[in-house]
Amino acid sequence: MIRALALLACLAIGCDDPTVGAVANAAAPSPVATRDPLPSWNEGATKQAIEDFVDRVTRGTSSVPVEDRIAVFDNDGTLWPEQPIPVEIAFALDRIKVLHPDRDEHELLAGSGGGLDLVQVLAATHVGMTTDEFARTVKQWIATAREPRFKRPYTEVVYQPMLELLAYLRANGFTTYLVSGGETEFMRVWAERAYGIEPEHVIGSRVGLQYQVRATGPVLVRLPRVDLVDDKAGKPVGIQQAIGKRPIAAFGNSDGDFEMLEWTTSASGPRLGLLVHHTDAVREWAYDRDARAGALSRALVASKQRGWVVVDMQHDWRTIFPFESR
Amino acid sequence: MIRALALLACLAIGCDDPTVGAVANAAAPSPVATRDPLPSWNEGATKQAIEDFVDRVTRGTSSVPVEDRIAVFDNDGTLWPEQPIPVEIAFALDRIKVLHPDRDEHELLAGSGGGLDLVQVLAATHVGMTTDEFARTVKQWIATAREPRFKRPYTEVVYQPMLELLAYLRANGFTTYLVSGGETEFMRVWAERAYGIEPEHVIGSRVGLQYQVRATGPVLVRLPRVDLVDDKAGKPVGIQQAIGKRPIAAFGNSDGDFEMLEWTTSASGPRLGLLVHHTDAVREWAYDRDARAGALSRALVASKQRGWVVVDMQHDWRTIFPFESR
């Protein structure tokens, strides 16, 4: 399915993956005229930096073999909003309401003082069941839950420019990975539908698993033990464990992505680090525009010194969500 | 590189990966006549069972989507010999000789009594360096070390019938993974050359990693802490963490592979479990022919009840090593 889409994309917008491209050209001797692969990106330095990077990777003396064209994407705040609360927290709170209908949300979020705190909320909703049971629960939730501001399924409230960027990179031979602090199995349920990222390309935080043989057959049980926190310095660790190669492009939005961008961009050859800066209070959110303490400061300061590209959502993105243009 | 080879294989021996196949057929309207994809396998029930499985996966009402055609292969004793000692142990002993030239091999293997035991040998040679340093050491060793019986590089002392099986599955749309008790980064160095299995498809035991920023740039340091023992019940855990899907075909040779075969074959749809039984003392080894206690007993007994295919190396394999037929 995904490979079919990649081949179609390749035929439509042109690509120079040498393996796919050769066959595609043989089948279609008159190539379609080149179209803008990033129509939701306004013209300017940001878009140009992305296109220049892809040119360097795919053409000339600096070109990178297809098997090393690895691109890693943070999720919350990079591919979809993390406001008003991260989606996985919304899931956990909804689950707690189902499991504990007598408690109210404010009490749950209040932390101490009789309520459950956030760690307890996550633990109570993420472990103690099989991987199949957890996936079923997430699948049912994501199919019915609605994003609170735009009143649509979460998988539709994703950044259209980033979908185009994912497709553009894939059409140029990149493999695209999700690398997020979110729990791996939570994201695997919907990442393919939302972003075209397959389960085996989802790298997230991990809970322990235990193999058990039950009367109905073997299962994997999710344990109350965190095996990897895939955030900050944990991101390069998760990437190395899963891929075994250093990426050449990394996309993030917060200090949780600092080490991933640092690891990706501090080696030789063409490298791209990019930060999504949330500057559009009208169409999305502007929670780091006023440079409040913490949050983006370290990564944003570093971006100048390290040559990381900063996306100004308000100015660089013509469209933010797919449903805007419909 | 690998994708190019898959496309070529597809053109040469025929395949019905619907995405690749469609393009290949468009480019080459006169398909080449079908050749035996498994020439080193003698005709018989074992070979037939493999071909029947691939037919069921790729044709008719039971066919499996390409993205779910996941095949997992144990390494030692399944893709290459594990006698006289597993290759990774040979590496560790050679490294100890370099690091401690005053100790002799027998002392090292003796365990207690003043020598280093095997766990210490592995610890002393596998951790305390960066991932890049470890990979460099393994790369240098595997390029120069010789398998003691056949006096060739280890990467040439691999089972020819299994190489054909890997290529046959890939030509039919499968993704092939290495799932071994061996350490992940040790295997990643040479698995692509030996088997065509890319680093991101190597799942093994894992040591802890720590991200550090040094004056020369960031590194990942290998810690003296085992994060996953990818053996027995650890194999389904490693598979789920890395892939997030249940395989439909599993290949092993020992009780270390029991749970991997059980997990793979106990779900609906076409499933294949296969055990390599070492029965050829002349061309390879016959270390489990006499049914000594332990080793294969549980998996072999289970094979009848569970419908797992048992390869009798002496009778089922026409050729064992690639260099035999040259």
**Structural class designation of chain A:** alpha/beta
Strand content of chain A: 15-25%
Class of the domain at 36-82 and 159-325 in chain A, according to the CATH hierarchy?
Alpha Beta
Reported CATH architecture of the domain at 36-82 and 159-325 in chain A: 3-Layer(aba) Sandwich
Radius of gyration over C-alpha positions of chain A, nearest whole angstrom? 21 Å
The oligomeric status of these chains comes to homodimer
In order across it, which strands form the biggest sheet of chain A? 4-3-2-1-5-6-7
Average pLDDT reading of chain A: 86
Order of helices and strands of chain A: HHHEHHHHHEHHEEHEHEHEH
CATH fold type of the domain at 36-82 and 159-325 in chain A: Rossmann fold
Query: Helix coverage percent of residues of chain A?
Result: 25-40%
Stretches of chain A where pLDDT falls below 50 for ≥5 residues?
A: 1-31
Q: Distance between the terminal alpha carbons of chain A, to the nearest Å?
A: 25 Å
> How many helices of chain A in DSSP terms?
14
Walk me through the structure.
The structure is a homodimer of 326-residue chains. Chain A is an alpha/beta fold and 326 residues long. Chain A has a domain at 36-82 and 159-325: Rossmann fold (3-Layer(aba) Sandwich). In chain A, 40% of the residues lie in helices and 16% in strands. The first copy, chain A, is built from 14 helices and 7 strands. Chain A has helices at 2-13, 18-27, 45-58, 87-99, 105-109, 118-126, 131-144, 160-171, 184-188, 191-195, 234-242, 258-265, 297-306, 313-316, and strands at residues 70-73, 175-183, 202-214, 217-228, 249-252, 272-277, 309-312. Chain A has a 7-stranded mixed sheet with strand order 4-3-2-1-5-6-7, with helices on both faces. In chain A, strand 5 (249-252), helix 12 and strand 6 form a beta-alpha-beta unit. In chain A, helix 1 (2-13) packs across helix 8 (160-171) and helix 4 (87-99) crosses helix 6 (118-126). The longest helix of chain A has 14 residues, at 45-58. The first copy, chain A, starts with a helix and ends in a 10-residue tail after the last helix. Mean pLDDT of chain A is 86; it is low at 1-31. At the A-B interface, helix 1, helix 2, helix 9, strand 3 and strand 4 of A face helix 1, helix 2, helix 9, strand 3 and strand 4 of B.
